């Protein structure tokens, strides 16, 4: 029975449910205020979230920053910097996430709007694949993070002296007191667990929303291929409309029905595709605008983090537990960047195929007005759709960018290793 819970049966009309794991984590971490509660309840919850972040994130990062007062060589810097960079980047991402929480919650409500419901049988496939992709993405990052945490917590046991899981400075000498060492060890363990949960819960929000955007684009392609073909019945909702965005759906339906009566059914189908395409791009732009600063910071920090992790893993006094911890941590960091770039690459690839989709329609039977509408739609879709992050310096999320990040990290590693040998 546990397998059915791990691999749930999705409801294509409740796409928000694919974020169930993220919402559970964010709720208990103080990053998801109750959506239907009064302002006083939201304010109390916000205070709860701030207390958790200050104690287990901000103070946690401060102890790591103070450790640099005692660094002696480049190995000490590598041991501390790759974790500190992760924490500093995470603090920035969480404050951006917290600042935009109302917009993020609105995006998840929009995701369940009637406009994004599959209308015909072959439209269920891309929607359900997107939901499964969001769920398994969270599962993958969660398990890799768990193994990383285990390795970090276990690795101090292989040292002859008392060592904390993460290099940090504290105003007490924990080497002389077993009780003090145990308390600080527990504090760092909790901080590591919370930091990891913060990371994969917030990062998969962006990736998950973009996976749903890609699924809706594939759905739109299926609609385009059917333009002009006879159907057994008209495209109708298979469930009763529900949600906050139904007024938007009703307005679109009224416009489509008006065009169907005045210009014909095929022209109305083209109009539906145009309006749907416009709405998808608007939703995608909103998600990009919310997360672009966070993703850009993560990409920039990943270059240094990957480099420093590799430098630590290639050190002379690395134990097997340390090596496994570095390997899992490296997998987490590269996976984060790869997922961002992969999702952006998929959206660019799918949108480039709209001209091909039009070729499957019954275009040779269109009247002049419908043909002009199709040409207008093709002109809209010929514009390249690239997912870009960053304010001043724009970074395009695709697989080429991922390869460039890996090359840059290796170049910095080679420079640091040459400095170490000298």
TrEMBL record:
Location within or outside the cell: Cell membrane
Membrane-topology descriptor: Multi-pass membrane protein
Any one GO molecular-function label of the UniProt entry: odorant binding
Residues spanning the membrane: 45-62, 74-92, 134-158, 179-200, 290-311, 323-345
GO cellular component: plasma membrane
Keyword Aminoacyl-tRNA synthetase belongs to the record: no
Superkingdom of origin: Eukaryota
InterPro entries documented for this protein: 7tm6_olfct_rcpt
GO process terms (BP): signal transduction
Keyword Ribosomal protein: no
Keywords: Cell membrane, Membrane, Olfaction, Receptor, Sensory transduction, Transducer, Transmembrane, Transmembrane helix
Annotated protein name in UniProt: Uncharacterized protein
Organism expressing this protein natively: Anopheles farauti
